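Sanity check

After download, print the first record. It should look like this:
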Amino acid sequence: MIVNIIILTAVAWITVYSISFGIWTWRNKNKLGGIMITLVALIALALPSYILIFL
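Expected structure tokens:
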């Protein structure tokens, strides 16, 4: 159980960093890049979370 919390914390940390990079990319007039980085970051958060919680 504690290992799952540590793994989800690490994944959430990486996701927050990636989303902040997506926002920076969006502000530098690369809208498609910002959207795709944010999308990949959210998927990278959702898949491990789903596996750890439901399987």
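If your output differs, re-run the checksum step. Summary of this record's structure: Residues 23 and 29 are 10 Å apart (CA to CA).
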